[in-house]
Amino acid sequence: MKHLFKKGSDLTNTTLLLLHGTGGSEEDLLPLAEHVDPEANVLSVRGNINENGMSRYFKRLRPGVFDEEDLKFRTRELKDFLDDAADEHGFDRSKVVAVGYSNGANIAGSLLLHYSDALAGAILHHPMVPLRGLSLPDLKDRPVFIGAGKNDPICPAEESEELEQLLSEAGADVTLHWENHGHQLTGTEIDAAADWYRNNKNRLD
Ligand code: MLT
């Protein structure tokens, strides 16, 4: 997959996996990584799907309705890519923490719902429930931050709560942070995610 890798202060540190929103690129979330953990390695990946010129991580049938077969295939593809990228770049595969926004948060959520060992933790900015009806993996004590908007027209508040519940059922330790806004990523949400990361750093390593 098209990506960029930036070594942190030490290759054995956490690697932040950056996953952009629809129409974004691997450059978009670089400032977030710097804010969350300036010492971390950064692996920023561009979505393989081209929807009318916009990059995404999986196909959708229409806004908010996902092509589930493609989502499953792309989730596996991203997991395999992470395994290969760890060999190629030499980072610790067990210390990958996703930072995703919107479509990027949705594929990160799908990684969590499919595999117990794909991610050490995740910051999900405005995710939806990517898939329902899966048998859940063991995510015991896996730290997950969800940033959600009370007035998000793309991801209704109930769906953020449903995702929190699903991940908690799998054993994850979920923090659900609310903003009184819509789908946009606000400065206060970014600060809350960075605080959460600092407070959970020892469990993410
Ligand atoms: C998606 O398609 O993943 C969600 O609707 C979010 C987005 O608009 O990208």
TrEMBL record:
It comes from the Bacteria. Residues 76-183 form the Dienelactone hydrolase domain. GO terms for molecular function: hydrolase activity. This is Phospholipase/carboxylesterase. It comes from Alkalibacterium putridalgicola. The lineage of its organism: Bacteria, Bacillati, Bacillota, Bacilli, Lactobacillales.
